[in-house]
TrEMBL record:
UniProt keyword terms in alphabetical order: Cell cycle, Cell division, Cytoplasm, Cytoskeleton, GTP-binding, Hydrolase, Microtubule, Motor protein, Nucleotide-binding
InterPro entries cross-referenced by the UniProt entry: Dynamin, Dynamin_GTPase, Dynamin_GTPase_CS, Dynamin_N, Dynamin_stalk, G_DYNAMIN_dom, GED, GED_dom
Name of the protein described by the UniProt record: Dynamin-related protein 1E
Similarity section: Belongs to the TRAFAC class dynamin-like GTPase superfamily. Dynamin/Fzo/YdjA family.
Ranges of residues in domain GED: 526-618
Primary location recorded for the protein, binned into one broad class: cytoplasm
Subunit structure: Forms homodimer and may homooligomerize and heterooligomerize to form the phragmoplastin complex. Binds to PHIP1.
Native source species: Manihot esculenta
Highest classification ranks of the organism: Eukaryota, Viridiplantae, Streptophyta, Embryophyta, Tracheophyta
Gene Ontology molecular function, alphabetical: GTP binding; GTPase activity; microtubule binding
The keyword Isomerase belongs to this UniProt entry's keyword annotation: no
Signal sequence, renumbered to the chain: none
Domain of life: Eukaryota
GO terms classed as biological process: cell division
Domain called Dynamin-type G: residue spans: 35-304
């Protein structure tokens, strides 16, 4: 059978671990909050409701700061541990481990000092809890969370927003479905105006999680009592109301011992004509036992759902850790291996894009199938081979010596001028493929998940890839221009010999020496020259339309697939350990996230072990 001590102790240990990690609910939403899933008893009450006195009475010690205004300015997680009779009482703070306090006046001072450490000596509040464990034979195993007292008016030195800030903080604790609400109300005030009851009604309308406590029963007007409340007639809860009688201010001033105060409280109820019949269910000792039993019951009921949350969170965190990658090795050889593996991962994705459809291979094919032919069709051959330009070029080429048969020099000049126009589309094809490859590099780096951790290496790979692509572009341009120049440097004479010979009006074939001297400046003669050259240029255009893509693929695409990072690999082999480490400098955000995930994963696994260590006894 799982003991109450082991169950509550388990939750106490998990709560402390959560606080160390910064998980105290209502804050970071990037992780599931284990703190919010843990059952707890939240103590709620307005200022001067007697909340601090109730807690001290349950503990049996004076240890809480006192004063006017807002005294509790940080949540106090109070973990009570019952120890053997006759053992030394002591207290221990989570922020001061292994430093036991046996003087509870020093405990009070440390609570004040630790509060001021975060909030300063102002009246500000902080949601970061203080953890205090008290070990005593005079307590039951119980965990209580003391929250700032609800208030309606800001005091001097506080912003007007303090009222809402306190309510928001308190609400974040009591609205948790696993929270037990201890609503403290003074008996000498109308229960309808109780701040604690008002808030608990909003977050727990059925009253299933709320325990009502009436304080200051001994301070009610003579002739009145609180039986209507205590017996559930004026305001009913699922659980019975508990009345308590705290020490008076005079008792506090006289340093009346809490053990004596507990005895006086028992005597008050036992001898009271109004409450005598309820005496066995009244008082701070009964309240502590009732809460301890209820907390143990809630913990037992919630263990399956808590375990489910933990297992789900572990699975999600391990998946994220795999995504973020493991910490980088410090050994130079291991670092070089890591860099090479990352480069290969990038290269693999780059090749997949290049050999696949959009935005890689398909776009490159579009350059060859659409862009290049369209550019060739738009070349200004009509203007270059116009009648006027042909006449001018041929005449200038003849000079003072007319051609004998055909104006060969004129032909050559016109052809060379026309072929020069092919340079533009050839170079444009190289540039277009270059920009496609450059975009693929950028896209592939972005899609290489393993590289996201290493912005320095990302930049180095991008720079090396773009540098290589520039070299490939230069080679590509030289090659396609060489193709154009090759066409200009040697004309296919056989093409002109195969052209159909048209007959002149006089009956002599074109190019006949007898007619050339007579007709060399005839309009028809120049038109035939333009037509012949146009046919030759069309043939060259078809040739280049096929050979330019071959050159571009050979010089750029093929090289990008085979040797994009070859120079980078050579340079890597020359780098020393420090330079390799610099390449593997991680994005600080990724490093921080990994550390957060690792710590949270450790918390969840240790919490699962805590639960497993007691749940088998159930």
């Amino acid at each position: 059978m799982t003991t109450m001590e082991s169950l509550i102790g388990m939750v106490n240990r998990i709560q402390r671990a959560c606080t160390v990690l910064g998980d105290y609910g209502g804050g970071d939403n990037t992780f599931s909050s284990l703190w919010e899933a843990l059952p707890s008893v939240a103590v709620v009450g307005g200022q001067s409701s007697g909340k601090s006195s109730v807690l001290e009475s349950i503990v049996g010690r004076d240890f809480l700061p006192r004063g006017s205004g807002i005294v509790t300015r940080r949540p106090l997680v109070l973990q009570l541990h019952k120890i053997d009779e006759g053992s030394q009482e002591y207290a221990e703070f989570l922020h001061l481990p292994k430093r036991p306090f046996t003087d509870f006046n020093l405990v009070r001072q440390e609570i004040q000092d630790e509060t001021d450490r975060l909030t300063g000596k102002t009246k500000q509040i902080s949601p970061v809890p203080i953890h205090l464990s008290i070990y005593s034979p005079n307590v039951v195993n119980l965990t209580l969370i003391d929250l700032p007292g609800l208030t309606k008016v800001a005091v001097e030195g506080q912003p007007e927003s303090i009222v809402q800030e306190i309510e928001t903080m308190v609400r974040s604790y009591v609205e948790k479905p696993n929270s037990i609400i201890l609503a403290i109300s003074p008996a000498n005030q109308d229960i309808a105006t109780s701040d604690a009851i008002k808030l608990s009604r909003e977050v727990d309308p059925s009253g299933e999680r709320t325990f009502g406590v009436l304080t200051k029963l001994d301070l009610m007007d003579k002739g009145t009592n609180a039986l209507d409340v205590l017996e559930g007639r004026s305001y009913r809860l699922q659980h019975p109301w508990v009345g308590v009688v705290n020490r008076s201010q005079a008792d506090i001033n006289k340093n009346i011992d809490m053990i004596v105060a507990r005895r006086k409280e028992r005597e008050y109820f036992a001898t009271s004509p109004d409450y005598g019949h309820l005496a066995n269910k009244m008082g701070s000792e009964y309240l502590a036992k009732l809460l301890s039993k209820q907390l143990e019951s809630v913990i037992r009921a919630r263990i399956p759902s808590i375990l489910s949350l933990i297992n789900k969170s572990i699975e999600e965190l391990e998946s994220e850790m795999d995504h973020l990658g493991r910490p980088v090795a410090v050994d130079a050889g291991a670092q070089l291996y890591t860099i090479l593996e990352l480069c290969r991962a990038f290269d693999r994705i780059f090749k997949e894009h290049l050999e696949g459809g959009r935005p890689g291979g398909d776009r490159i094919y579009g350059v060859f199938d659409n862009q290049l032919p369209a550019a060739l069709r738009k070349l200004p051959f009509d203007r270059h081979l116009s009648l006027q330009n042909v006449r001018r070029v041929v005449s200038e080429a003849d000079g003072y010596q007319p051609h004998l048969i055909a104006p060969e020099q004129g032909y050559r000049r016109l052809i060379e001028g026309a072929l020069n126009y092919f340079r533009g589309p050839a170079e444009a094809s190289v540039d277009a493929v270059h920009f496609v490859l450059k975009e693929l590099v950028r896209k592939s780096i972005g899609e290489t998940q393993e590289l996201k951790r290493f912005p320095t290496l990302q930049a180095a790979i991008a720079a090396a890839s773009n540098e290589a692509l520039e070299r490939f572009r230069e080679d590509g341009k030289k090659t396609v221009i060489r193709l154009v120049d090759m066409e200009s440097s040697y004309l296919t004479v056989e093409f002109f010999r195969r052209l159909p010979q048209e007959v002149e009006k006089g009956g002599s074939p074109a190019g006949n020496p007898a007619s050339s001297t007579v007709d060399r400046y005839a309009e028809g003669h120049f038109r035939r020259i333009g037509s012949n050259i146009s046919s030759y240029v069309a043939m060259v255009s078809e040739t280049l339309k096929n050979t330019i893509p071959k050159a571009v693929v050979y010089c750029q695409v093929r090289e990008a697939k085979q040797s994009l990072l070859n120079r980078f690999y050579t340079q890597l082999g020359k780098k020393e350990g420090k330079q390799l480490s610099e390449l593997l400098d991680e994005d600080p955000a990724v490093m921080e996230r990994r550390q957060q995930c690792a710590k949270r994963l450790e918390l969840y696994k240790s919490s699962r072990d805590e639960i497993d260590s007691v749940s088998w006894e159930r």
